[in-house]
What we know:
Order of helices and strands: EHEEHEHEEHEEHEEEHEEHEHHEHH
Number of helices: 11
Radius of gyration: 19 Å
Low-confidence stretches: none
Shape: globular
Strand order of the largest sheet: 3-2-1-4-5-7-12
Distance between the termini: 30 Å
Mean pLDDT: 93
Number of strands: 15
Largest sheet: 7 strands, parallel
Amino acid sequence: MSMEAGKRIVVTGATGNVGTSVVAALADDPQIASVLGLARRLPGWSPPKTDWASVDLAQDTDLVRYFEGADAVIHLAWAFQPTHDPMRTWRTNVFGSLQVFRDVASAGVPALIHASSVGAYSPGPKDRAVDETWPTHGWPEAAYCREKSYLERVLDSFEVRNPGVRVVRMRPAFLFKEESASEQRRIFAGRFVPGQLARAKAVPFVPDIEGLRFQALHTDDAAQAYRLAVGHDVGGAFNLAAEPPIGAAEIAELLDARVVRVPRPAARALLAAGWNLRLVPASPQLFDAVLRLPLLDCTRARVELGWHPQRSSLDAFDELLRGMRRGAGLDTAPLAGRRTG
């Protein structure tokens, strides 16, 4: 590791959608001397000032040796699948996070920046935005929300026991970029769904389902918030999202498709059938959660971090569609696309 003046940052989950953007943003920051990226499988991709170590949070029980001497640990590692085996994701996401939190304290790291999510929030309004004081009890039937919410409670007690650690919780909306499109198609739609369905006129209609209104953000813009949190003496939660909210009309315009009203029970039944047949990886419980997510007020991030997204939510979603059409990816195991393996 470099011994020059500047901060040393450790990033878990450094090869995924968010991790690659965060590592790149840190590498471009002159105040950052070095970055250590932790990932289960080492990547071919590596920006300046970055070293790598192979770590599996479901297996490794000692992370102190990686954290010692760090100025901050950014914890991004997360497993979305398999949705049919919630105990497996619980071991990685919850037990792995508990290990990260414990070893941050044991190593004396002064700052922990944790990737929470809009999914940690309790059901909320679609006609107004909520700030960081909105309850974080999640949607209990969805494993993703349940795990994110549980870790919010863990961090509540962690902060009481470890007052010397500055804890930041990022709660972003849906994060998209072109290079993550192949991964996100595999995680949520499944490998059998062709990416060419993301081109204009490829689908006849977009379903207008009650509650289908969400926010998105370009992953690179989210990464800038993580970078700013390293350099600012702030703590607590930060909502991250871009405007405008996205619904069926906005998606239909991007795809040059019609909008057709579809009853929520019918849409859910179709998804549940595909999930039970293991044709679709996204669970109907996650579908239920998405339709209940609140819209986010990001005033705190703007005021205290000086953070402003450079792209609209529609720009981010359009990048996702373009990436799906092109089979885009990056030379890391999670983001591998048709161009990279």
